[in-house]
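In keeping with the milestone schedule agreed at the kick-off meeting, the structural modelling team has produced records for the first pair of proteins. Each record is given below as a sequence line and a structure-token line. The laboratory manager (R.T.) confirmed that both were archived under the project's standard naming scheme.
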Amino acid sequence: MEALSFVGSALLVLGGILWAAGAIARGSARSSAEHDLTVRLIPVEHETREVVTEQLRRGNNVRAVSRLRRATGVPLTRARALARSMAGGTVPPANHSESWELLRARRPELVAETERVHEQHGRHGRYAAIRHLRRHLPVGLAAGNQLVRGRDG
């Protein structure tokens, strides 16, 4: 009888572990997709895009990532991800207005809700919109601010 109780407890613990692992895997897949979108939203000036694309074509990946870091001010991991997407043929937006339009194309429900929050809060609408955007995308305060400002053109 004791052995049966032990087996039941072990199965219960194993079920809890598997459930937690599934929840973590679903969350990391979602955050990975959000991270990819966030990287795609980083604006890069036209001249920098040309130089980086040429460096990537030549195989100078380290120089390309370094140039992206200096030009955009993003951390190394995001600069690498941006260089990887540019090497794959993705053209980043030129400014924050284009980033906002890209976000509108990719996540229209988030843009609509952010604009609603912006309008709803009146004088403090920009700050509320930035907070709302940061709740739903892994962007920093400065990037969120630039995106919301890019909304106004």
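The second protein of the pair:
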Amino acid sequence: MHVSLTISGGYTGQRLGAAMDTDDLAPALAAEVLGALEGLAGAVQSLPSGAATQPRYRLAVSRPAGPQIVELTEAQIPHGLRPLIEELRRRAHPA
């Protein structure tokens, strides 16, 4: 599954982007990440008030049923997605 991440906002306002395929992850990590992504599939996300000072993470997931886009702040990232977010942050470059 192809996943892209755009990081924006926060105090610096810098915009970063990265992309990868979940097939590039170790099998156990990929299973955890895919489970967390499935959990987000039906969730309605809303950014909390005061979120302008926090980095925003925009995940775009290519699914067979169509793309899924989720926007989260740092505090809203589920535990199972943190390894994916960290890997994408390591790969990030100015967007």
